[in-house]
UniProtKB/TrEMBL annotation:
A Pfam family assignment: FSAF1
Protein name: Uncharacterized protein
Biological process according to GO: maturation of SSU-rRNA from tricistronic rRNA transcript (SSU-rRNA, 5.8S rRNA, LSU-rRNA)
Organism taxonomic ancestry: Eukaryota, Viridiplantae, Streptophyta, Embryophyta, Tracheophyta
Domain of life: Eukaryota
Coiled-coil ranges from the UniProt annotation: none
InterPro entries xref list: FSAF1-like, Ribosomal_biogenesis_FAF1-like
Residue ranges, compositional bias (Basic and acidic residues): 23-34
Gene Ontology cellular component terms for the protein in this record: nucleolus
Region described as Disordered: 1-42
Length: 79
């Protein structure tokens, strides 16, 4: 190679500063500016009540919770 002359580069050579690994890297997915969720809003109170129902260990506790729900909806209270 002759001193003082720049090294010839092929026409399809990568730009300076890029490496060979950049060629195989997948492009980063673009994040949209739209922040609206397709998921419905979660009511924390309803979620806690559901956890209480599923967490009841005996059938008597589940029955009491069910009876409270019936009364809240306007049903007749049990004795």
């Amino acid at each position: 190679m002759v001193k003082g002359r720049p090294k010839p580069t092929p026409a399809n050579a990568p730009a300076e500063g890029s490496s060979l690994s950049d060629m195989y890297r997948k492009p980063a997915a673009e994040k949209s500016a739209d922040t609206s969720d397709d998921e419905p809003d979660i009511d924390i109170g309803k979620l806690l009540k559901d956890v209480e129902l599923f967490g009841a260990s005996t059938w008597k506790e589940r029955k009491q919770i069910e009876n409270r729900k019936v009364v809240q909806l306007g049903g007749k209270a049990t004795k």
